[in-house]
Amino acid sequence: MHALDVAASLTTPLLPDDYLTYLNPLWSRREPRARVEAVMPETADAATLWLRPSPGWPRHTPGQYVRVGVDVDGVRHWRTYSLTSVPGRRDGRIAITVKAIPDGVVSTHLVRHVRRREIVRLAPPAGEFVLPARLDAPLLFVTAGSGITPVLGMLRSLASAGPLPEIAHVHLAPTRDDVIAGADLRRLATKHPRYRLHEHHDDRRGLFDPIALDAVVPDWRTRPTWACGPAPLLDALTARFDSEGVGHQLNIERFRPVVAADGAAGTGGHVRFTASGREAEADGATPLLVVGEEAGVLMPHGCRMGICHTCVGALCSGSVRDLRTGETTTGDADDPPMVRTCVSAAAGPVDLHL
Amino acid sequence: MSSPTASPLAHLTPEDIEAIGRELDAIRDEVMADLGEEDAAYIRKVIAAQRGLEVGGRAALLVSLFPPAWLAGTTMLTVAKILENMELGHNIMHGQWDWMRDPEIHSTTWEWDNVSSSDGWKHSHNFQHHTFTNVIGKDRDLGYTLLRVDPEQPWRPWHLAQPLTDTVLALFFEWGVAFYDLEIDEARQGKRPWSEVASDVKRLARKATKQLAKDYVLWPALAGPSAVPAFLGSVTANAARNVWTHTVIFCGHFPDGAQTFDYGEEQLEAESRGDWYLRQLVGSCNIEGGPFMHLMTGNLSYQIEHHLFPDLPSNRYAEISPRVRDICQRYDLPYISGPLPRQYAQVVRKIVRMSFPGGAPSEPTQTEAELVAERAARRRSRMRVAAVA
Hints:
The complex is a heterodimer.
Chain A: H1 3-11, H2 16-23, E1 33-43, E2 46-53, E3 65-72, E4 75-82, E5 94-99, H3 105-113, E6 119-126, E7 139-144, H4 148-161, E8 167-173, H5 182-191, E9 195-201, H6 202-205, H7 213-216, E10 225-229, H8 231-243, E11 250-254, E12 266-273, E13 278-284, H9 288-294, E14 312-322, E15 328-330, E16 338-340, E17 344-353
Parallel strand pairs in A: 7-8, 7-10, 8-9, 10-11, 12-17
Antiparallel strand pairs in A: 1-2, 1-6, 2-5, 3-4, 3-6, 12-13, 14-15, 14-16, 14-17
Chain B: H1 14-34, H2 37-62, H3 67-93, H4 118-131, H5 162-171, H6 173-181, H7 184-188, H8 194-222, H9 227-253, H10 265-270, H11 273-283, E1 286-288, H12 291-296, H13 303-308, H14 317-330, E2 337-339, H15 340-354, H16 368-388
Parallel strand pairs in B: 1-2
């Protein structure tokens, strides 16, 4: 019998965790946590948080994100942020870079109000937006705004291992001062001759058009490309790559808030959360995630914009509508489809196993 | 002494009842909108204090051959168990802290330091008792299927022994709750399949085994030479917790003046939100005392406020109590409240009196059931008038 099992029979119905975390909040076996050790401002509305995670925190791959659980006004919120530090640092710390978005409860808290030594919850790193183990061809990065963050992690890791390989990096931001980690990027560009940084500032040159790639990176068609930024940019890039027959070269990560697509809002209906036994009335425009949270269900969630799949639940019956596309998915008790509650709304009565 | 007497609600018009419902809804909405960091800090502070006391109590009992250590350990463990049972377990399992979305302080995940499992309790308490509060034949908490506490409940010869039954129940209250949650009475009446009872018995056995092993085997064994006093410390702490929770809970609905309701399905169906609030209001009794007493009762000393707003965080009951009292004054409604010794004396007197047949006061002029039916009829006719207009 494991020592902790013995301990658990002494603490039942609680777990040894419930006591140990008073000695050190990071000693939780139930969930990884982290202590905020430093907050470094990046721009007027972005900051990098240095976190000390619980012992045993897994090493991430550059480009991956981490889910962070933060208490704001007493309420736990989860969001995903890209890891911007080099994996496997000797001091064991990790960094996330956060941009405060207007009305963003969590991002505003993390950028402006977070206290040193505050404890946050974590979920292990995840995400497919990563570089291959071997880099053969020259690369292209296209990033915009906070879309720089996963690429920042990649660049820093590559630079920590040696001279940077052949990389063209087009970064878009409203102004020069809005570039997150701008000084770092410019230093990398000076130090590594094969890393070429093209900053595009909308205030001076207007919105970026992918046509401009021909001028800035003439050989872009031959370069495996990683792009991250707002949806219109990614849509335009996808269209350009597809029309040139090089769609396979493009890897994208979408940071997209949930907005009901035209005509996507439907009638809504009665929602039953079958695992927790709660029920609620939902309209056709509110994500099921919000419906569940308001009904007191412990809804798992991460990015709240359809990326990370943390919030999925089995749709046992009824239909849900994807708020981004308007597509509906219909449940099946025997083989229930998994739906993302953060971007799905009820389209009639719904049974969701959550 | 007990209902049915002339109803304390007889003078209310349907409009009054609607207005009371609106006022109470407004209090609830206001508090819910105001919940935040301070409330979260409060419950976390109580949890930290409870765990500290538990650790301190267990540690002292390890060396309890030394009598002062026994006394200190047993006292700390008793207080820890009472806090855990009342301010934490009862209230967290009501969902009072679900708004924090912290899975460690959530009604769906909390398990209490009690032989009964939290799932069974949540059904019989949160649903049955809080929905059908004081409805004879529906609210199984009225005497807990064991005692006769209302003249409307039929007298049986075994009720003669109920002063003794109640004393035993008080000492072993957690076991009383555990067996009560099995709903054997419901199965006997065919309202619940025996297979469900069987699976609940298994669940109880699993939980109780762990609880008994912890309190009476493992911790005393760890105490080595202090095993016997450590064992006795656990026995005392559990018994003291049991007697205390029994006392608080019985003072919630059984003192003088608390109304019971002889409703059928029809009257329950006809109840408006305002009617429901009023049933909770006149069926519950508060206990007066200082802040420590309120904490130790899990704020069930604000039983009236708790029954009006069962899922409102308990630390807020004190601040809304004057507002509820004010509504009662304005609408000439009873707000039953008294110090613990007085309330408990009334409970004891009732248990003794009800062990004998009868006990009903003089015939009522109009029962609650008739009143609700009448009010519903008046509401309907008003709606017809409105529709015609």
